[in-house]
Write a structure and sequence with these properties.
Order of helices and strands: HEEEHHEEEHHEEEEHHHHHHHHEEH
Largest sheet: 5 strands, antiparallel
Helix content: 25-40%
Distance between the termini: 100 Å
GO molecular function: ATP binding; protein kinase activity
CATH topology of the largest domain: Transferase(Phosphotransferase), domain 1
Structural class: alpha+beta
Keywords: ATP-binding, Nucleotide-binding
CATH architecture of the largest domain: Orthogonal Bundle
Organism: Octopus vulgaris
Number of domains: 3
CATH superfamily of the largest domain: Transferase(Phosphotransferase) domain 1
Protein name: MAK MRK overlapping kinase-like isoform X1
CATH class of the largest domain: Mainly Alpha
Pfam families: Pkinase
Number of helices: 14
Length: 423
């Protein structure tokens, strides 16, 4: 909780449920308002937090216009407190229709139901079903006429095999297959819940629960102000057999939502036009860059401008994975090449040996051949004692000897010269 208070200022309580409470918070850094969902359960490790089904689902489903956005996850390991920072909405559907004294307009109902079906279609396409669709989990932002689906704490993956949890979803929105089977239900349970929410929004008086033993009169008599298309859609969503129940994707294609499909198409076209305009601006920038004066081969500009533009720059290259290893190897190669260059740049008195090409630095500008004509016989005799000082003194012998310089054997030129001179 201390980590939360360092970053956010709590302004009040928005609501409370069985597993969490929602707080209204203000970010200290920039003053923006957010919803803080504080879990009542205590967590012990980051691994347990990352495996939380709600966090995984919200990360998987976002971004989407009709799915609540998860901004940040705050976990205090000392206290075990877990907090989810989400975008702040105005209210939920239940709060919206609770104090209404008149029916909502059919266009308003149609707009909200279209967005709800889009959110359900999105999560079903991504392999998740909600299992707790109800008015309290459907949030609204009134000034934008925006609806978002929230609270994914009960969701499951479609790939997980049944049976599922029997006691799931709120009682008034639970599908018949959830009530009558031992956990053998599918994603169609969300469709039944959507139909119940649809009826509740149109009726604007909550969920009826006082049912008599008499045969029902039908949905149309309960909502006489609704259009026949709306009644037909509710009947398709709340079909008793889940196999006959339509999907959210099929519901979006019905004539009932034609108006908002057209609005979506207009919005899509406008967004594509904006993308085309941005692409044209990028192309225009490239053309202007190409039209700028370039430096000619002689080093002069093609015009009087002093600026030059390089349009095609080389791509940045990543560093080697083992940088220290490559540095040490380069140092060893450089040291070895320096030793070879010291030998090759000698006075020429040493015999010419075969040098392997890999031992020589190819980028070195050193002259590999030494001119020996500059040295006469006298100079050679003066230089030889200096070379002999680098080796250990040895006992004189009667036969010809060989001087050793480092790892190379010198030719017996010293004894030959002495015999020629009569020494």
């Amino acid at each position: 909780m201390n980590i939360l208070l360092q970053k956010y200022r709590i302004l009040g309580i928005k609501g409370e449920g069985t597993f969490s409470e929602v707080l209204k918070c203000e970010r200290v850094k920039d003053g923006t308002l957010w919803a803080c969902k504080k879990m009542k359960q205590s967590f012990r490790s980051y691994h347990e937090v990352n495996n939380l089904r709600e966090i995984q689902a919200m990360r998987h489903l976002n971004p989407h216009r009709n799915i609540l956005d998860l901004q940040e996850v705050i976990f205090d390991k000392k206290s075990g407190v877990l907090v989810l920072i989400c975008e702040l909405m105005d209210m939920n559907i239940y709060e919206y229709i609770r104090d209404k004294r008149s029916y909502l307009s059919e266009r308003t109902v149609k707009n909200y139901m279209y967005q709800l079906c889009k959110s359900i279609d999105h999560i079903h396409r991504l392999g998740i079903f909600h299992r707790d669709v109800k008015p309290e989990n459907i949030l609204l932002k009134l000034h934008e006429n925006l609806l978002k689906l929230a609270d994914f704490g009960s969701c499951r993956m479609l790939s997980s095999p049944p049976p599922y949890t029997e006691y799931i979803s709120t009682r008034w929105y639970r599908a018949p297959e959830c009530l009558l089977t031992e956990g053998h239900y599918t994603y169609k349970m969300d469709i039944w819940s959507v139909g119940c929410v649809f009826f509740e929004i149109i009726w604007s008086r909550g969920v009826p629960y006082n049912f008599s033993d008499k045969r029902g009169t039908g949905i149309a008599k309960l909502i006489p102000h609704a259009s026949q298309e709306a009644v037909n859609l509710i009947q398709c969503l709340c079909s008793y057999d889940q196999d006959e129940r339509i999907t959210a994707h099929q519901a979006l294609k019905l004539p009932y939502f034609r108006e908002f499909r057209d609005i979506d198409q207009v919005r899509l076209k406008s967004s594509t036009k904006m993308m085309d305009v941005s692409k044209k601006n990028i192309c225009l920038d490239k053309d202007l860059t190409a039209a700028l004066p370039r430096i000619s081969e002689e080093g002069k500009n093609d015009s009087d401008s002093k600026f030059s533009v390089i349009t095609n720059l080389p791509k940045a290259q990543s560093l080697p994975s083992h940088l220290s290893h490559h540095k040490e190897r380069r140092k060893r190669k450089h040291k070895k090449s320096q030793e070879n260059q010291e030998f090759l740049s000698h006075t020429g008195l040493l015999p010419q040996l075969m040098v392997h090409s890999s031992a020589v630095n190819p980028f070195s500008r050193a002259n590999l051949q030494t001119d020996t004509s500059k040295f006469n016989a006298g100079s050679r005799l003066k230089i030889l004692p200096n070379i002999s000082k680098t080796t250990k003194s040895q006992k004189p012998s009667n036969g010809p000897t060989k001087n050793i310089y480092r790892n190379y054997k010198l030719a017996p030129i010293l004894g030959a010269k002495r015999e020629a001179a009569g020494l």
